[in-house]
Amino acid sequence: FMLGYALTLDGLRSQIHPMLDNFGESLYFSATTIVPLSYGDFVPTGLGARLAIIFESATGVGIAALVITLLFSLYASFQAREEMVVQLDAVAGAPPSGVQLLETVAERGLRGELIDTFDEWRAWSAAVLESHLAYPVLLYFRSSHDNEAWLNSFGAVMDAAALMISTVDEDEEGPARLMFTVGNHLVEDLAWYFRYGASSADPLVDREEFNEAVARLKAAGYQCHPSDAAWQYFTKVRGKYASRLSLMSQRLAITPANWIGDRSYVPHADGRGRSHRKKKVPLASGSPRSGS
Questions:
Q1: Is the distance from CB of 163 to CB of 99 less than 8 angstroms?
Q2: In contact, 183 and 125? CB cutoff 8 Å
Q3: Residue 18 has what DSSP assignment?
Q4: For the chain, is the Cβ count within 10 Å smaller at the N or the C terminus?
Q5: Which of 85, 94, 119, 90 is nearest to 107 (CA)?
Q6: What are phi and psi of 252, to 5 degrees?
Q7: For residue 44, what is the enclosing H or E element?
Q8: CA–CA separation, 118 vs 113, rounded Å?
Q9: Number of other residues whose CB lies within 10 A of the CB of residue 284
Q10: Degrees (nearest 5) of the Cα angle 170, 118, 165?
Q11: Residue 256's pLDDT is what?
């Protein structure tokens, strides 16, 4: 804008007092007008120059208003996203876990709150879908608290929904399925933004981890489907979003959480994690490096 108005004013030199000597002065006059920060050292005297100055001043005010509005909009979207992340800590822990979420609501007699949680995160997913695709820079705004990340919290709720759909035989399946549908839409659209290909069907959770989760859910009081059938359904459900969610987690340099992110090393409190490093093979006794 400033350069365009400078070219316009440069063509109207004769209508400005004192007359602009070169394009540098035209650019200076344009810059002090669009801010607006005019010092009065140049004054438009002709109709064309006056109209150009009026339009440029209005343009400057409009740009400032748009920038301020955008900043407030970005902060409002960020704040709304993070409020839900902080609230989830109370039931899902930090870093969050879908299994712990289900455990906590059962052990504390908050099964009714589980439906509200799924409903709230369904609305959260829709809001993030709209705001973060409109302003992709929000994807890179990190959570301000330790052991918290918006993608991990979202993944924990998705895992809880996946377990309710595939494994747990309770009344909360309906709200969980609705949340999962909207949440999976969010994953697909974010994957489109990052230009990820087709999702892998790998649930990124092995059978041993799944069996441990089922045992914890049963201990918390949940009725569960038969293990083999539940595992097959769980792999199908989680395979829809797990690989893309983990790719995004690594892309955004988010600290891995339970079942989310880089699974080669997960820094849980109990020190467990799946290592994909190759084990060293002992050298044969006749090997040159065996010390013989």
A1: yes
A2: yes
A3: S
A4: C
A5: 90
A6: -90, 5
A7: strand 43-44
A8: 9
A9: 10
A10: 40
A11: 79
Question: DSSP alpha helices (H): ranges in the chain?
Answer: 2-10, 23-34, 47-92, 98-107, 111-134, 150-166, 173-193, 207-220, 227-238, 242-251
C-alpha–C-alpha distance, residues 259 and 237, integer Å:
14
- Predicted confidence (pLDDT) per residue in 173-210, tens digit: 899 999 999 999 999 999 999 988 776 788 889 999 99
Q: What is the pLDDT of residues 102-153, one digit of tens each?
A: 999 998 888 888 999 999 999 999 999 999 999 999 999 988 777 789 999 9
| Tokens (6 digits) for 1 | 């804008």
Q: Is the dihedral of CA 46, 52, 53, 55 positive or negative?
A: positive
Domain ranges for the chain: 2-64, 93-251
Asked whether the beta carbons of 204 and 263 are under 8 A apart, the reply is yes
**Of 105, 110, 98, the residue nearest 213 (C-alpha):** 98
* pLDDT(216) > 90: yes
Which pTM was predicted?
A: 0.78
pLDDT-derived band at 264, boundaries 50, 70, 90: low
- Asked if 27 and 2 touch (Cβ cutoff 8 Å), the reply is yes
What is the distance between the alpha carbons of residues 207 and 215, in angstroms, rounded to a whole number?
Answer: 12
Write down the architecture of domain 2-64 according to CATH: Orthogonal Bundle (1.10)
Closest among 209, 90, 194, 205 to 145, alpha carbons compared = 90
Cis, bond preceding 36 (omega within 30 deg of 0): yes
Number of other residues whose CB lies within 10 A of the CB of residue 248: 22
